[in-house]
């Protein structure tokens, strides 16, 4: 009966004349990456920039490449084509002139319009005490959340247990003045961590802060505190969030923004110290940086009785006695610089930096770890480039660890016609390439021990239709975890999007991935079985009127390993969004039914959440999922968000595993957030 009701809701989407007012681009990107991200990964930096740009649009006649890279839906070739248009034709007279630029289709232009303007900003950007006080933007967010049920880890267990309380807390303050000065202060506590009085902590478990001064004479950027560095194609030096393969095939060409302040609650991928970007000359900039951090790691004793480590802990969770013991157990010092040359359509950069750890890395006894980094010190160098020639954007990077191997990636974006664009990418990463800040395009979670070739097409056969196709072949020359021999595989994706009006969008997608893994059979010598995952998706976004919009989805997943029987799973859901103009209250609701035989056939789906907090749900097992988000404008500058979310599993005695196990068949999560802008 539940399935029939949800199927009826899905069919309504096909027979109702409607349109969508919400762009699903970010949702598509997040869902495509969800399988390789931890469940609580903070993706707020994606929305953060777009929220700011909606309030302070980019002046297209007075902008630069770095500013436009903040718009994640613009490809490097589109950005290059925009500046070529300005150079040839002069300043824009009308924003709709964008449609005359090569590769700027109707969908891209529509996405761009809320974030750009042709009007000169009326903001005063002189740094004076009066301006800082009166014209700065202050943004304070306080968020509370918890699971209503009590997981096993919060009961009085004789062994390992969570020492802190169930509540999740976040306090984030941000200041911005005319994009000249920014500052932030973040405190965060995960469920199970202690509040205020915990060991090895100040106030909440995690703290982050920065002060940044931008565009001051020769100093383009000065950042004190926490920051990220994103250069080239992510092979030599990239911290913070990075996109990989996604339905937008151009996303494999990374858009580096160099130095930027860090404002996320993720507790691992950032630097802490001082960095600046200096204009050495008209075409040359230099970015020196210095960082010192304490990191989490599991330590053991070597034969000499010294503490050693095999890997670093990246979760940022400090809930049990063991996790607290491992907190801040290793220090990391890092210093180096990046020099870049930019002129016309050519950009070239060189990277060099040195890392020092106070504990020695060891490889462990596993054969697949043979080429892992060993020692306390590591020096990395890299060279990256991009060049636009007519309708082709070339990009690439090579990286080298001085005591290890070599890695390189090269690619090209090509505008074949006004309706067809293509991307190709080749990569070769040695198994002994050592780098702790490596987020280049790869099939594995790290860009090491991999060779591959990627090719993709974006096609617009008719005005309302868009087709995206990519294929990626990869091989792993050395062993991996649970893969006791060299292996290979492939991934293919095809997506058709139909957008007959600005507010109706339908998507059909097929994705297939094949890898190899040790057999599950009990044999004397492991051999590799093919592991194949496939998914089929139908998705419709539409709007009934100015207040109500809907999303309907049906997704089917398949999983097969070796000669075992194929698993089939499915997810079907109905989203309803209520956002009337000028109303104090808005919200959305989801009702979903899912049925997947095991974790192997799980399905990921983006979920709406409170502001600055992205969620991608993992649907595994059999049951119902529902959530309700509400936003209420309390007074002029104060907004309140609330979320209630429920997983209800069919005939399940427990939910979750380990210390997160809950007795019963449901898991209920609530969030409450207040935002004050002043």
The appropriate CATH architecture of the domain at 217-456 is Beta Barrel
Taking pLDDT < 50 over at least 5 consecutive residues as the criterion, the unreliable ranges are 1-23
Strand share of the residues?
over 45%
Structural class: mainly beta
Report the average pLDDT across residues: 89
Work out the helicity level.
10-25%
CATH fold naming of the domain at 217-456: Porin
Q: With helices defined by DSSP (H or I, 4 residues minimum), what is the helix count?
A: 8
| DSSP, total strands | 32
First-to-last CA distance = 50 Å
Rg (CA only): 25 Å
Largest pleated sheet: 26 strands, mixed
Explain what the structure shows:
This protein is mostly beta strands and 678 residues long. It is built from eight helices and 32 strands. The protein has helices at residues 2-15, 25-33, 44-55, 65-69, 76-89, 106-112, 129-135, 321-326, and strands at residues 58-59, 116-117, 137-147, 168-177, 181-189, 206-216, 219-230, 258-261, 271-279, 284-301, 307-313, 330-343, 346-361, 375-389, 392-401, 406-415, 420-429, 450-459, 465-476, 487-501, 504-518, 528-543, 548-561, 567-578, 585-595, 603-607, 615-619, 622-635, 638-649, 654-655, 662-663, 666-677. A hairpin with a 4-residue loop joins strand 16 and strand 17. The longest helix is centred in the first third of the chain and has 14 residues, at 2-15. Mean pLDDT is 89; it is low at 1-23.
